[in-house]
Amino acid sequence: MARVYNWQIGREMSYWYPESRPQKQFAAVFDTNKCIACQTCTLACKTTWTSGKGQEYMLWNNVESKPYGFYPLAWDLKLLEMLNGGKWNGKAYEGQTIFESAPAGERVLGWRPEQQDYAYPNCGEDDCAGQVDHGAGIAMPHMNWFFYLARICNHCTYPGCLASCPRGSIYKRPEDGIVLVDQSRCRGYQECVRGCPYKKVFYNAMTGTSEKCIACFPKIEQGIQPQCFVNCIGKIRLAGFISRPEKAIPDNPIDYLVHIRKVALPLFPQFGLEPNIYYIPPIHVPFSFTRQLFGPGTDEAVKTYRNASNDPDLSSLLCLFGSSEMVMPRWKRQGDTAIGLDEKGKPLVSVPRTEPVHIRPARDPLYQITRTNCP
Ligand code: SF4
Ligand code: SF4
Question: Which atom of ligand 1 approaches the CA of 212 most closely?
Fold first, then answer.
């Protein structure tokens, strides 16, 4: 085991391979507050990459309702129970990661789901925490809650799948940090399925190999965001590249949200993989729940997000989500307009921070009609 630095848990940790960061790291921010669970992302991925034989049950992208939704069943609960807790001391995690708590002779603390665990992708959908009394559903504020968690492979800095593969079939691309399974090397041992705590590697019984989200790398290579991003109805997603915290660049949108404003957080950082999909936590969910999912930065992230309407820079950048199919490695704000830029600073898209409102006259002389303007 090597010693590597994981900034998300604020300390060094043990990992199977020495630290080797890519030239650029693919990353993304998902705003959980905007997801409507329409599953368009799921279908955009399914119809693009997993419509073949043996892939029927595969959802490289899935959206689950928390607290009771899981795909596969209880993926997170099971590992949390195996890890047996673990405390944070400020920004540093004092518990053990899945690499540090691996049983003797194994590389990762993991488990392999049963076939049945994949049978209910919509389990717990729209189920809220606690009992809703008759009529309480339409009362504001809701006293009970749920939220939607969209998930893809995190293209982790320290992937559990890669560490657990005995054949060395999984690799992290040096040019963009995307994690892939080499189909010609894989022999289907499924150690990666066992070792990925997010359960984002799937075994294909028809090909006898494991498969996973490829971050639509053919699109990323052309500067275009992945399928699940560009098809997202709620415009909750923004793809890009992330720097190390000490090298954060303010006009890199992902760096700005993750490192500078700290409004987007990793999913289960305590697992120790340094995952690269970051989440703006839901603002209506008790911190006792969201802290477990997103770590100790949750309270501050929610406070910052709640104040976004008084924060021109942050609210401008949030308007760039879902505004272009192109990856926007840079951005700037000009007055009340957010502008997404390419690497050389050329504008790709501009979006007003405040949506203009046009109220049409009630009487239209051209068409000789009377309209009802609903406020
Ligand atoms: S989320 Fe899972 S499959 Fe994706 S890189 Fe991390 S460990 Fe591997
Ligand atoms: S397409 Fe977007 S809004 Fe719809 S479920 Fe997926 S992430 Fe949520």
Answer: 3
